[in-house]
Design goal:
6 helices; alpha+beta; seven-stranded mixed sheet; Metallo-beta-lactamase, Chain A; about 15% helix; 2 domains; about 300 residues; globular; 17 strands; about 35% strand; six-stranded mixed sheet
Length: about 300
């Protein structure tokens, strides 16, 4: 056998081909096995393995994998809730976090993560908190699929995506891909709304004169070159993805400093942001509120 190919549904890319090629077959004590295995999901190479040895019927210890964090995966989406951040802003909880901002004539949501189910929860909460207003903008922090998976639900609502200029043309392209295996709300709309995207270079301010969201590019991010953070100046809150994630209670300075943490801190200091609270989109499992002092500690620096 040289190749296996099938089509699968991907919540970001739609119908994609998943293929596996098996080459360089060798005989290992009577068992023929490929020594080079390559898989693709869509265009990119997804997996590659070079096999140097095969032991037939070797004893194997199998253990049950524990569920990972994230909420909203195939195992089900936790109920959504909200925390009042003050002055017309709320944090949506129960899965990946999102911010809802009640501007004068419209609503801004920061992050459309995970999948259509999570996005629908966020939209439902937004409409409860800010009735009879359109969600004009959904801000996307970066292009990793777990932070993109709910954007199509917002496009179906008529929202414009605000994202880094690094992603220019990307969402307009992939949202046109066919979705016949698992049609979503957007793909079933006739005619489908146009995917509207606006781009951020280094900074953009969304404001109606009373409510303000500052979007800043995280320079030198090694997680994603187009990373954006959202700063709420009135609340002194920084909303960020993947640059500062802490689960559980951690009160000690870590023995190994995470460069994500030092770089985020460097950007906060460079931008002179007055931050009292940091909210990771991957919300802490223990529900605690992270302070800037904890970021300094995690970065091995004094506040």
């Amino acid at each position: 056998m040289e190749r296996v190919e099938t089509t699968i549904a991907n919540n970001v890319l739609g119908d994609i081909v998943w293929d596996a090629t098996y080459t360089d077959w060798k005989d290992f004590n009577g068992v023929k096995f490929p020594t080079h295995i390559v898989q693709h999901q869509g265009e990119p190479k997804y997996f590659e393995l070079t096999v140097t040895d095969v032991k037939p019927n070797a004893p194997v210890s199998l253990t049950t994998a524990t569920a990972g964090r994230g909420g909203g995966g195939r195992g089900g989406t936790p109920p959504a809730g909200s925390e009042d951040l003050g002055a017309g802003f709320w944090l949506i909880t129960g899965g990946y976090g999102a911010i809802v901002a009640n501007f004068k004539d419209y609503v801004v949501v920061v992050e459309g993560p995970q999948n259509d189910g999570r996005a629908a929860q966020i939209i439902t909460e937004a409409k409860k908190l800010t009735p009879n207003k359109p969600i004009k903008y959904v801000v996307n922090t970066h292009s990793h699929f777990d932070h993109v998976g709910g954007l199509r639900e917002f496009v179906a609502e008529g929202s414009t995506i605000v994202t880094s200029q690094v992603n220019k043309g990307y969402y307009e392209k992939i949202f046109k891909y066919p979705r016949t295996l698992a049609p979503d709300k957007l793909s079933q709309m006739k005619p489908a709304p146009k995917t509207r995207v606006e781009y951020v270079a280094e900074k953009r301010v969304l404001t109606d004169g009373e409510h303000t969201i500052e979007l800043h590019h995280v320079q030198n991010s090694t997680h994603n070159e187009g990373m954006l953070i959202a700063y709420l100046p009135k609340q002194k809150v920084l909303f960020e993805a993947d640059e500062f994630n802490l689960d559980g209670i951690n009160t000690a300075v870590p023995p190994d400093i995470n460069p994500y943490h030092t770089n985020l801190l460097a950007n906060i200091e460079r931008l002179r942001l007055d931050v009292e609270r940091i909210i990771p989109i991957h919300l802490p499992q223990d529900g605690r509120k992270l302070t800037t002092a904890e970021l300094y500690k995690a970065a091995g620096k004094n506040n």
